[in-house]
Amino acid sequence: MILAWLGALMVGLSLGLLGSGGSILTVPLLIYLVGEQEKVAIAESLGIVGAISVAGFIPYALKKRIDWKSVILFGIPGMAGAYLGAFASHYVSSTFQLLLFAAVMLAASVMMFREERPRRSEEKGSSIAWWLIALEGLAIGILTGLVGVGGGFMIVPALVLLGGLSMHIAVGTSLVIIAMQSATGFIKYLDVLDKLSLSVNVNLMLIFGLIGAAGSIIGRTIGSKISNRGLRKGFAMFLVLMGGYIIYMNV
User: Fold this and answer.
1) 247: pLDDT strictly greater than 80
2) Which residues contact 45 (CB under 8 A, 6 or more apart)?
3) Roughly what angle, to the nearest 10 degrees, separates helices 202-222 and 38-62?
């Protein structure tokens, strides 16, 4: 289990440094290192990442580095999408969910390999059509509920490119949105698991959540002292390897 706890620390570090990537690590960790059943792992991932995101966004909120307008425009449709995605998960196989999850990992790696575009100033806030932000929030929410990813790797670019936020504001805002979506998806997933006579491991979630929360604080602290560009490239390579492994195991 030591590898699993180290993995939980990596989940927190990823969320603290990049505002994304936590759930992409959590699901395979729970399945391949802890041995959880696929649908249970997805549900537990939502609860764990949601808790870590709450711990992660509090420092940003205290420093007023969260754009609350974007939280409303993106987060509320995202919560509705997460509920719909969790509801739909009852009607698809675990293999389909994991293959979709692997596709998401590969898509995330492509986005992390891409060079970052120039950001607008923090003071400008959201400036693009609100319905585009809301629509992407709904789509990412559905994905969150269906395969257990927080969607930060898509939320952060969307907030930057559509919302006009700086990277620092987008990361903090993303953590609030991830927490909202994950909580909604997790609550619905409990109902889905109950119908399948399955349940989550609360003790495991608490340990993962506490270690991950500590990691997010560490990640936020050291984030300004290391190259985000190099970190993104390394994380992208890891996603390619893990995505390929999941496809290999399920095809």
Assistant:
1) yes
2) 23, 26, 27, 30, 148, 149
3) 40
| pTM for the whole structure | 0.80
Q: What was the pLDDT predicted at 200?
A: 96
Separation between Cα atoms, residue 178 and residue 23, nearest integer Å: 10
pLDDT, tens only, 159-192: 877 777 887 788 889 889 989 999 999 999 999 9
Measured CA to CA in angstroms, residue 173 lies from 24, 78, 203, 208, 242 at distances of: 19, 13, 29, 23, 27
Q: What is the DSSP string of 45-77?
A: HHHHHHHHHHHHHHHHHHTT---HHHIIIIIHH
Query: Whose structure tokens read 């809301």?
Result: 134
**Which residues are CB-neighbours of 236 under 8 A, at least 6 positions away?**
108, 109, 110, 112, 113
State the Cα–Cα distance between residues 40 and 196, nearest whole angstrom.
Answer: 10
The structure tokens listed for 195 are 């119908």
At position 30, the amino acid (one-letter code) is L
Q: Which two tokens stand for residue 39?
A: 């649908």
> 105-156, pLDDT tens digit by residue?
888 788 767 655 544 444 444 455 778 888 989 998 998 899 877 777 778 7
